[in-house]
């Protein structure tokens, strides 16, 4: 009888340890995967102003598809992560097609990476 309860205790101790270990490692990996980044109000405002100054609004509107996708649709497709800021900033600078259709997005070689990132931070903050 005594032997059994000792076995029971060590077994349940092991189960508790395994559970604690696995939940903490799951929490860590999911935190690593999606780093939602929250830009500051001023980064968003600057991004909006940069877009207004550039030619973007000739092809993009806030919530209707024009030549390019609406910014709301872009924000729906891409969560606000550092990885997406990087991909989309590159796309603004280099141009490209294929994510929304066959009409290409023109390149903006004169836009800096810093400015492009602010534009993307604004776009992905649109709800
Ligand atoms: C001549 C029209 C045109 C102009 C000007 C334009 N775009 Fe686009 N944009 C497009 C098209 C078309 C697409 C869809 C490309 C695709 O299918 O991958 C697009 C896609 C995008 C995307 C999504 C990219 C992706 O890979 O999902 C972003 C973000 C974007 N544009 C931002 C901007 C910004 C910021 C500017 C101004 C600096 C701008 N665009 C100017 C036509 C334009």
Keyword list:
single chain; binds heme C; 2 domains; 5 helices; mainly alpha; elongated; Cytochrome Bc1 Complex, Chain D, domain 2; 127 residues; 61% helix
Number of strands: 0
- Kindly report how far apart the N and C termini lie: 63 Å
- Low-confidence stretches are none
Strand content: under 5%
Main structural class: mainly alpha
Shape: elongated
Mean pLDDT: 86
CATH-level-4 superfamily name of the largest domain? Cytochrome c-like domain
Q: In which range does the helix fraction lie?
A: 55-70%
* Highest CATH level, the class of the largest domain: Mainly Alpha
Q: What is the helix/strand order? A: HHHHH
Radius of gyration: 24 Å
Number of domains: 2
CATH architecture of the largest domain: Orthogonal Bundle
Which small compounds were modeled alongside the protein?
heme C
Characterization of the model:
- With 127 residues, the chain is mostly helical.
- The chain has 2 domains: 1-33; 41-125, Cytochrome Bc1 Complex, Chain D, domain 2, CATH 1.10.760.
- 61% of the residues lie in helices and 0% in strands.
- The protein has helices at residues 2-33, 41-53, 71-77, 82-94, 113-125.
- The chain is elongated and about 80 Å long.
- The mean pLDDT is 86.
- Heme C binds at residues 51, 54-56, 58-60, 67-69, 74, 88, 91-92, 96-101, 103, 105-106, 108, 111, 119-120, 123.
Write the topology of this structure.
Elements: H1 2-33, H2 41-53, H3 71-77, H4 82-94, H5 113-125
Helix pairs in contact: 2-5, 4-5
The structure holds heme C.
The site of heme C has 28 residues, from helix 4 and helix 5.
